[in-house]
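Page 42, continued from yesterday. The earlier attempt failed because a stray header line got pasted into the input along with the sequence. Redoing it now with the clean sequence only.
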Amino acid sequence: DALTLCQEHDIADASAYLLERMGNVSSALQLILQTLEGRMMGLKRTIRGMGVDVFRHQHHRSGNPTRKNESSEMISKQEREVDGVNRILVVALDLCERN
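This time it went through. Structure tokens are written below.
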């Protein structure tokens, strides 16, 4: 069963789509909203983990290459988190528009 496979592998958007196609729109929306909440919490943790230090180094361009790499990695992680939030938000909006 495709839905079971999607759920086992935590593929929320595909699971929600299949739930919707089966007529269970409320469960699909609930799954998407739970996923959105989880991704927003991940983004919040990433931003908090960055701290003020990362932004200081971004603006002052420290000569320490290790610090630059750490800052770049944290910013890249934040961008991935934002992308994940945006993608699941689009899925939620699409679901609402279709129903």
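Notes: The two ends are 24 Å apart (CA to CA).
Reminder to self: strip header lines before submitting.
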